[in-house]
Amino acid sequence: MTIKTVLVTGGAGYIGSHTAKALADAGLRPVVYDDFSNGHRGAVRWGSMVNGDVRDQTRLTEVMAKFEIDAVIHFAGLIEVGRSVTAPEMFWDINLNGVAAVLGAMRETGVARMVFSSTAAVYGQPAGDGQDRLSEEATKAPLNPYGDSKLAAERLIAAHTRAYGLEGVVLRYFNAAGADPSGYLGEAHACESHLIPLAIEAALGLGPALTVHGSDYPTPDGACLRDYVHVCDLARAHVLALTTPLGPTRFDAFNLGSGVGHSVLEVIAAVDKATRRTTPFATGPRREGDPAMLVADPSRARAVLGWRTERSSLNDIVADAVAWRKAPRFGFHPIVEAVA
Ligand SMILES: NC(=O)c1ccc[n+]([C@@H]2O[C@H](COP(=O)([O-])OP(=O)(O)OC[C@H]3O[C@@H](n4cnc5c(N)ncnc54)[C@H](O)[C@@H]3O)[C@@H](O)[C@H]2O)c1
Question: Domain total for the chain?
């Protein structure tokens, strides 16, 4: 089937807005569906924009029919791990019931494929000595309601492929970071919990000093290792996932990461270099549930999706994130057609 128009739920958010741009760059038409609870109207610069709640199946059905949607990329959801521990019901509601509503609307309108934003958090604490890169087959044992809700959503999608013949592609991101080099899109979470933007804020004197959680991990410098992947590389993977052939199960899952681990101290050094400042930080105790190393084995995404990272070196990621933080420039694009 030829894909022309793609519903992008959560398309006013960080990864969704970059993906809407990647869709437009690939000649496709994005229709952003977002309630703007955490997104930015100014980040919607390509295609159409619809205000709606992702749990509202009736509205989703109307929108899918009206815009003749061919496929859905489902980003909308809550993302803060810490908040998921203190307010789990919100995460189960939006992250799981949201997926159920989108799948229901797809069934009603005959939209075949959902590409779903999942996360490395579904793996929890890696098994063994924790030194291996994670493949898609690694044990899934989330450590918090955020990861639980995402794993449950993955399973609901897989069940729909069996029950109703829908197609599901699950993309498990490691640490999304960076910004579009144009300077028109970037990371602007209202309550920021991600290391790179927090380190940049600290370095530029726009936020508090950073805390490095743990210095006695079994890693080269004692700090945790994580896998940072450029948001523009992630965005391109979604375009590929819209048309990748699926086997008889009509379901597949891919880890999206650079495949390289960088320690918190290496990130701080990269921020120092890009900002030409010294990031203020203090070392604190380990945080409960933080694995020493979370690094993707992205070989399936390479082999099956044909995905390659292009801007996911730590220096490129941090340079783009610093440029964005110094001059964030959301703004409307003339071709956006807003629908009440
Ligand atoms: N940022 C990361 O590093 C990362 C890593 C792994 C997975 N993910 C997943 O990727 C997706 C996007 O993450 P992000 O960083 O762009 O987050 P984001 O908060 O920037 O974007 C989420 C978007 O969803 C919208 N939204 C939230 N609740 C909604 C609702 N009820 N109805 C309609 N829209 C709603 C928000 O307004 C926002 O625009 C999420 O599902 C997240 O779990 C992100």
Answer: 1
